[in-house]
Amino acid sequence: MTAAAAARTILTRLHEVMASRLHPQGKLDQVVQIIGESLDSEVCSIYLLREGMLELFATRGLEQSAVHVTRLAIGEGLNGIIAEHIETLNLAEAAAHPDFAYRPETGEEKFHSFAGVPIVYRERAVGTLCVQHADPRRYEDVEIEALQTVAMVLSELIAHAGLVDEESSTLGEALTGPQVVTGLTLVKGIAGGIATFHQPRVHIDHVVAEDTEAERQRVYRAFDKMRDQIEAMASQAEFGTGGEHDDILETYKMFAYDEGWGRRINEAIDSGLTAEAAIERVQQRTRMRMREIDDPLLADRMHDLEDLSNRLLRIVSGQLGTAATQGLKRDTILIARNLGPAELLEYDRRRLKGVLLEEGSLTAHVVIVARAMGVPVLGRAQGLRGVVREGDEILLDADKGIAHVRPNQQTQDLFAERFAQTRQKQAAYAELRDVEPFTRCGTRIQVMINAGLRDDIAALSLVGADGIGLFRTEFQFLVSATLPQRERQTRLYKDVLEAAGDKPVIFRTVDIGGDKAVPYLDSESADGDENPAMGWRALRLGLEREGLMKAQARALLEAAAGKPLYVMFPMVSEPWEFDAAKEVFDQQLVWLKGQKKLLPDQIRYGAMLEVPALAEALDLLLPRVSFISVGTNDLTQFLFAADRANPKLAERYDWLSPAILRFLRRIVQGTVGSGVELGICGEMGGRRLEALALLGIGFRRLSITPVAVGPIKDLVRKVDLAEITAAMTAWLSSPPLSLRDELSAWAEARGIEVD
């Protein structure tokens, strides 16, 4: 007998039971009889979750006196293991299993073989269904699959009949309890909220089909639509992001056209399941196989199939939207395999508190945007799928690279204390909004913000910054499906300038390519970049794609009509590159004059110093520029030959290394008397201890993330520049074993907080 035929025989009889007027207990009593007879098994039992324990609810073959008496804790005995791990067991000799728990009141000592499956409702085990036999034997695959199919039907009956505690079936603390997920810190911060899946799981409420052929046609149509989507994704990717992304798409295509997958779903429909239940039924089998796989590469591919199954399930059920389209109702920690920057921006920033990703890297576009939004992100979260469920409470500590799922009271109390301290500090910093940051010795320090989104401009007045020291124009390119037209660029730049009012905005020309690849813009010269951060990107790409740079130059010039315009070129490695970029703007300026267009009332050009070679040509560059901004993120990784996206090199990426500080001090000394304004734009300037060091080596302008403005203003007001300059000079002349420790001790002795 096939699995479909075995299951169909059972389901046909179960139909009659479910439609009867029997009370729920009576129905379960009949269910175990039907399953035992159909599978020719001497024992069939149903355990259900009540008050956090698995309770024997119905049995054929065991002692009836054990019903509602025998109870097992989650993780106790074979049934407890099935419920805890939501997995299937198939044993020829049950007593030989290390977790076997003998209960004498059941009279089960004469039975040897055992097979059990979880009864799952809305992704949680609410009970178990098991069979036993006197002869030692493993159950056939067709019998196991029939049990799994019946368990799906039982989940519907059990949930609707109220046979399990509502708390047990919806919250799941009794199943897994507190868990800690570890991962890679992508954006620092702490946050708390309710777990919400970016692509919510489809809840299957109807599992028994009324018309098998109609369900089959629904699946066929869903497969066609899914394949069209995969082909569309593949065609868009032809412009080349390469690497892992292409591998995933190829795997998607392989599974989407896999006849075996479709055949298994068809067989599940033949057994009497709806299209949704059939897909979920096959997906359960996939999850069980995933738990048995040790090969990480093969496990990843099985995860890809899980993703496709979810996509197919959403299509067949008509539930295609993301959590963003449904709207966030409470403070949320968003769960996703991966996210695009445009997808992240769809969420309500008031409710989105943090993000947990199964994948993700430090250079991913979404991380750049999340950092700008001030949303902490933890990536490469291990075991996320098997631990987090929709609605779970999560406390995210991206600073430490961990997330607490369903935290216990002690963890909640610790986080509550940290949140309270954070709010207290934020309130104190907010009072500095209208206070100008003068040092104790009376020197005015410029504190500006980095931005890239239209909404970021509101932060100027909220934190009292002096202006925007870095507006990342590439954000508009990263969140667009196609190359942004000149008119769209002009509109954005004009909106930003109007919102900034009298405060300066320094626009950095587009920094895409390399590790910020966009699918609609590819360069043959960039193919095969083994180190994209040092590849064909930023100004190098802009000078090659002259049309792109001309369009941006004209957009900026038109947007700044009647106002001052500050333009900064990224990734300048030699002075001639600055000249070439400025020439593009000069040509557009001449053209606009010929068209009698209103022009900016002044234009100031600057360069990002992030390529070490440019520091060696500083004397040649200074006469050409009005200002220089040192980009510490790229500069540091180039100086240390340490990829900042590689977690193994994190300890080498130290901004308080004497090497980087000596290099930065040389830049400061090289600009003295030139009239060229010098600043720092990067994460380094937004950290209190690092900012203290920067003040000590001569920097007087910092451009930082908006949330760091208050803390840095507070720091500035506590510093005497003569003192810190003398200390830094001594340390850099004769570096201590740990300059970070020395600087921290120096600050602590003067009552300056640096955490």
TrEMBL record:
One of its GO terms (cellular component) is cytoplasm. It is an enzyme of class 2 (transferase). It is found in: Cytoplasm. One of its GO terms (biological process) is phosphoenolpyruvate-dependent sugar phosphotransferase system. Coiled coil: none annotated. SMART domains: GAF. Its cofactor is Mg(2+). This is phosphoenolpyruvate--protein phosphotransferase. It comes from Tsuneonella litorea.
